[in-house]
Amino acid sequence: MLLNMRFLSISYRRAFYARLLSVMAVSACFGQAQSAPIIYTETTYYDVDLKHARTTHSLHQILESNAPKDKEGKVKLEESGWNLDWKFKWQSTEQHCRVVDAKITLTKRSNLPRATRLPDEQKIRFAFTHFLKRVVNYHRERFRIMESGARDIEGALVGLNWKGDCENASKKISAVANEVYQATTERLGEYDRMHHYGYTGGYYFMRYPWSDGTQSPAIHADYEYFEFDLNRVNSKDDIHKQIFNYSTVARGDQKHEGSAQWIVFWDYDIQRQNGGCRLSNVRTSVEIVYTMPKALSLPQDPALVSYYEKIYQQLMEHEEMHATSGVAAANQIDQYLKSYTEEGRCQWLAKTVLAAANEIVDVHRARDTTFDAVTDHRGRRDEYVKLFGEQPWSTEGIR
User: Fold this and answer.
1) End position of a domain, from candidates 162, 194, 226
2) Is the pLDDT of residue 197 over 60?
3) 119-139 confidence digits (pLDDT tens)
4) Residues of the domain holding 368
5) 150 with 58, same domain?
6) 10 Å Cβ neighbour count for 122?
7) Is residue 393 situated within a structural domain?
8) What residues form DSSP beta bridges with 200?
C-alpha cells in the first residue's frame, strides 16, 4: 500500500485585511470506516473593551490595538481558515482495486473580536455589532461551502474501482480527490466574487441601519463639539486663539477650527436575467460628522459676540460644502448601481462595482482637497459654485 501526501497552501487577500486559507490533504490507509465527514470547529477570541469608544474612528483604533498580527506585522481584525484531511481504505483483488472506506476530517478555525464591554454610545454599539454580524455570516457561508466540498470528496472516493494493483491506483484515487477539492475552491472563489460582502469600504463601520422605504441615498448628519469659554476674550484674535487652543480637529501637525467628515455606504442584491446580471434592492447612504466649536460662555463685548456668531455661521457654511461632496458621491454611486448591467457569468461583478464606486468617492474627496487649497479653508457656497460650476447638494438631499 502506498502513502501519498500532498500539501496545498492558498492565500486570499481582500480589501484592508488578509485571510489565510491553509489546507493539508493527506491520503493514506486506515482501518476504521466513517460514514460522514468529521467536522471540528475551533473559535478563538481576542478581548476588547469598547466602553469608551465614542466614534467609529476610536472603535477602529481599539480593535486594531488589540487584534493579532500576522508574520508580516499586519493587523487582522478577523480571520478564518481550515484544515482538510482525507484518508481512504481500499480492497484489492487479482484484477481490481476498489475504495471501500473514506475518512474526511474538516477542522474549521476562526478568530474574532469579543467585547468585554460594549460602547456606551448607541450608534457606535450598532456599528460594532453590525460589523461583527457581517463578518460571522461571511465566514459561515465559506465554511458551509467547504463542508459541502468535504462531503463531495467522500462521495467521489467511496466505491471507486480500477483495474490493476492498488499501488498504481493510489495516485489516481488521490487525483480524483484533488479534482473535487479544486472544484470546491472554485466555488469559494465564485462566492468571493459574487458576494460583495457589503464592500462598503470593507471594514468601515456603519452607525445607522438600512431603513426600508426611505430615500436613497439616506443622509445622516451628526454633530460633535469641542468646548471652551469666551467670557475673558478682549479681541477677535483672542476668539480665534481660544478656538484653536481647544480644537480637536487636526490634520498632521496643523489644527483647524472645524471639520466635516463623510463616508458613503452601499449595498445591493444580484439578480440574474437574460444571460447576464443587474443589481436590485440598491441601498446607499452617506454619514456626515461635523466637528464644530462650542462656546460655553460668550464675550462681555456685544460686538465680539456678534463676531463669534458670524464666524461660526461662515465656518458652518464652509463645512457644509465639504459635506455636499459626500452627498454628491452617494447620489452618483446610487445612480451607477441602479443602472448597472453585465453580460455573461458576472464573475467579476463585485470587483467591478467596488472599483467604480471607490473611484467616485476618490473624485469627490479630491474635490474637497481642491476646495480647501483654492479658498485657504475659508470657501463658502459662492466660491463652491464658481470653482465647480454647479450648485452643491444639501444635506437634505436636494439641490
Assistant:
1) 194
2) no
3) 999 999 999 998 898 888 888
4) 218-388
5) yes
6) 10
7) no
8) none
